[in-house]
Write a structure and sequence with these properties.
alpha+beta; six-stranded mixed beta sheet; binds 1-deoxynojirimycin
Length: about 800
């Protein structure tokens, strides 16, 4: 507990542990303070669930194809969910395999939740019955499997009823949340052949099914109507059907529907039974097909699908495995941080308990960064995201801030029309003008493309042609198309054109910081980003044999104006408002030092070494807290619309001087560039969720995930983490820690090893798969330095080492190579 917001008075609380053998986070004290989430499904059917089986499932889009309902931001927390009730038919007592919704007293029941990679196991021991419900989605089929095991440890024969229950949603979030006058009367349920079918009659093919391995058509064993199963004046905590121990066989055309199936079982002492419930996309016939596949005797297809899912993740994780003296770093980078980064690329931010599906599509800047983080573990997805973003670029060189990739794809079927949903705006209104553009959005795409090529060696990608958003005609599926390389030029030219009176890039609607709008002023962050993008572009262009002299001149010019106008004698200014007022200068009373300008000055390569050192010293001096680096200091306290919305956010929250996680790794990377490995690690450690596993009374959120922000010292809840999972923090943590701190960086023709680590580290190893060859890298640090490589051997032969580390040339496909690097 934290007393009066004082972080020194802490009674350490711990709710679980990292099980490295199974790669699960195990919550063994289930009453965690907030939802601790996980994601299942990596293709079209996906779900978000918490530690007590609350959450929702959707197909392709949480906005327009939600399968099960969720009541966001509600009390009780995270309802409804995908629940398995167990009832003792001799006593009438009942419970759920997940702690909620029945919520048995924890004095009498033991609950555990094991969050794994794309699956969750809810385990329960109550009244002599051990039970487990595993939720997962096979890679190949749009069905959620509830794999249930019950074991009788009570020493006596037990008669039990088991109910699987879930509440269906009307697909579109708008239809499900407002104006029910159509949906309630145009959706129906039926039950036949042991399969509950939901028919969203108002849609073409709007079907869902719920079934189990052993069903019959007895009315006492099913309900399709939510209100009948739950009963009047009740909730999921005490459904009438469970209390009675019998269903009613309800179904109807119209109304709110559920999948509820009862199984009656008898268990001898020590006996175990395995049951399956299947919740899927499609109609009754699809349900029958899926049931016969997964419910065939022995359930071997379920076991195979679960194993295949395990291998899917194993293969990804094996692309990069580390063994360092830092246990937390090993656990996070080898499993959880990559997992989180991948989930962000797949789900693209818009499905969580906070973003519950009302927005969908791709955020330009977020997706560009996400795609940069996983080209080694998910090259296909990185590439497809890059292509979607290239098509979402305008000929002017700015990207559409938020867009749906389908807008620029050939439509195979007519858009869904409903009388209750606001129709999609016509194409002309989907492509917004420059006044709605964010100045940083498209700049992120350039390094992302360069990193994708460095990882894969797919140089031809630069010559592929794609259309521009503002020229695309959905009727003909045509538009002006140019190469990827040309798209990149337009982005760089846009930033060169859109500059303010100081020669610094305009911030436009905002830069990376959504809330620092500068009222049309200039943004240091964008100019530094422009510089960074130019460096990547020129390197790629040269490798491709292109003339990039125009862009080399542009790079020099940007660097010059950054040093001239942004270096303020102590650190780097954050920007200028439209009236020319400096933000983030020694003279500023509030928002004096900012993370974005100082870290990016270094990371972009624009700052001189000495200025970089001073800038990062200011970051340490003004922004460091034991929970990570604040975004700025001091917090803004007076609304000031010339600065932006940030001044209207409470002090210590979000962009107003909270510990915003996403930019923290920029500081680790910047310190690595400067060669200060101990400082980089100090910053890494402060933010690392693993280090807060036993500080949950402060952190509250899950310790296996980076969260979007942590309340800063100006706030009464200093240290409390908010918005887990869906944040660019994971990708950036992964990128900064592996490429800058451990220093393993693919280049166009070599794998660079250029570590910057704490001086006391004696050695570490990395197994890296790059372009279909394995590199077993051992880094030794006999001289206790933080940076510098004096010797490198590849399979016993010396290779080139320089200021930028060792350069290991590409080795043959399928080869396994031993690399030894001596720091010094
Ligand atoms: C969250 C947004 O998704 C992201 O685009 C933005 O950069 C950060 N907030 C910071 O404002």
């Amino acid at each position: 507990m934290i007393l009066n917001g004082n972080p020194d008075i802490i009674l350490s609380m711990k709710y679980g542990y990292f099980d490295q053998a199974s790669k699960e986070y195990v919550i063994d004290r289930i009453d965690v303070p907030v939802s601790w989430t996980n994601y299942i499904g990596v293709n079209e059917l996906c779900g978000v669930f918490n530690h007590t089986a609350g959450g929702y499932l959707f197909y392709k889009s949480p906005e327009y194809h939600r399968i099960t309902r969720f009541r966001p931001n509600g009390v009780p927390m995270d309802r409804p969910g995908h629940y398995v009730y167990v009832r003792d038919d001799d006593t009438g007592d009942y419970w759920t395999l997940s702690w909620q919704p029945v919520g048995k007293s924890l004095d009498k029941a033991k609950y555990v939740c094991r969050h794994g990679l794309s699956y969750i196991k809810y385990q329960c021991e109550y009244s002599g019955i051990w039970g487990q419900q595993t939720l997962f989605i096979p890679l190949d089929d749009p069905v959620e499997i509830w794999d249930v095991i019950l074991r009788n440890n009570s020493g006596k024969r037990r008669r039990l009823s088991v109910f699987g229950y879930t509440e269906f949603s009307f697909h579109h979030i708008q239809i499900d949340n407002q104006n029910f006058q159509m949906s309630l009367y145009a959706s129906g349920s039926s039950y036949k052949d042991g399969i509950m079918e939901l028919d969203l009659f108002y849609e073409d093919n709007g079907f869902q099914y719920f079934t189990a391995d052993n069903t019959n058509d007895d009315a006492s064993d099913f309900d399709c109507l939510r209100d009948v199963f739950i009963g009047q004046y009740r909730t999921e905590t005490n459904p009438e059907a469970v209390e009675r121990g019998i269903c009613s066989g309800s179904f109807e055309l119209g109304g709110n529907h559920c999948g509820a199936l009862r199984r009656v079982i008898e268990l001898e002492p020590d006996a175990e039974i395995r049951l399956l419930f299947l919740l899927g996309e499609g109609n009754r016939d699809a349900g029958k097909k899926t049931r016969s596949k997964y419910c065939a005797p022995g359930f071997s297809e379920v076991d195979t699908a679960f194993k295949t899912l395990g291998n899917f993740w194993k293969e990804k994780l094996e692309k990069l495995q580390i063994n360092t003296p830092h246990d937390g770093m090993n656990v996070m980078l080898n499993t959880w941080t990559l997992y989180q980064a991948e989930i962000n690329v797949i789900f693209s931010r818009f499905a969580s308990f906070i973003e519950v599906g009302g927005r969908t599509g791709l955020g330009y800047r977020d997706t560009s960064q996400d795609a940069m983080m996983v080209p080694h573990s998910n090259p296909e997805k990185s590439r497809s995201r890059l292509v979607e973003l290239l098509k979402g670029l305008t000929t002017h060189g700015y990207g559409l801030h938020l867009f749906s990739p389908e807008w620029f794809e050939k439509q195979t079927k007519a858009a869904f029309k409903s009388p209750t949903v606001v129709p999609l705006p016509p194409m002309s209104q989907r492509v917004h003008g420059i006044s709605d553009a964010c100045a940083d959005d498209a700049l992120w795409l350039i390094p992302s493309i360069a990193e994708y090529i460095r990882e894969t060696g797919d140089f031809d990608f630069a010559e592929e042609k794609f259309t521009y958003a503002d020229t695309y005609n959905p009727e003909t599926n045509e538009g002006m198309s140019e190469t990827v390389f040309d798209h990149m030029k337009r982005i760089l030219d846009f930033s060169a054109r859109e500059i303010g009176p100081h020669g610094i890039c305009k911030g436009l609607r905002a830069d990376w910081n959504d809330c620092l709008n500068l009222g049309g002023g200039e943004s240091a962050m964008v100019s530094f980003l422009h510089h960074w993008a130019l460096v990547h572009f020129c390197a790629l262009g040269k490798r491709l044999g292109k003339d990039v002299s125009k862009y080399e001149e542009m790079t020099a010019k940007v660097r010059e104006s950054c040093e001239r106008d942004l270096w303020n004698g102590s650190w780097y200014t954050r920007g200028f408002t439209a009236s020319g007022r400096g933000i983030g200068t020694p003279a500023s009373k509030e928002g004096k030092v900012h993370m974005e300008s100082n870290t990016w000055a270094v990371l972009s390569g624009a700052a001189s070494h000495d200025h970089g050192i001073a800038a990062m010293d200011a970051v340490d001096q003004f922004l460091y807290t034991p929970y990570g680096l604040k975004l700025c200091d001091p917090a803004f306290s007076e609304p000031d619309d010339e600065v932006g919305f940030v001044t209207r956010v409470y002090k210590g929250l979000k962009e107003n001087a909270a510990i915003f996680s996403h930019p923290n790794p920029w500081a680790w990377a910047a310190e690595a560039v400067l060669g200060r490995g101990d400082r980089a690690m100090k910053f890494y450690d402060a933010l690392c969720p693993y280090n807060q596993n036993d500080k949950i009374e402060v952190r509250k959120a899950e310790p296996y995930m980076y969260c979007q922000f942590i309340a800063g010292p100006d706030h009464s809840a200093f240290g409390r983490a908010h918005h887990p999972f869906m944040t660019g923090s994971a990708g950036w943590s992964y990128f900064a820690a592996t490429r800058f701190m451990l220093g393993i960086r693919p280049d166009f023709d070599s794998l660079v090893v250029d570590p910057c680590v704490p001086a006391e580290w004696p050695s570490f190893t990395v197994r890296r798969v790059w372009r279909n060859a394995v590199y077993n890298i051992t880094v030794e640090n006999p001289d206790k330095v933080s940076k510098g490589v004096r010797e490198c051997k590849l399979n016993g032969q010396s290779v080139k080492c320089g200021k930028a580390g060792a350069e290991i040339p590409v080795q043959g496909k399928g080869s396994e190579n031993q690399v030894t690097v001596i720091m010094g």
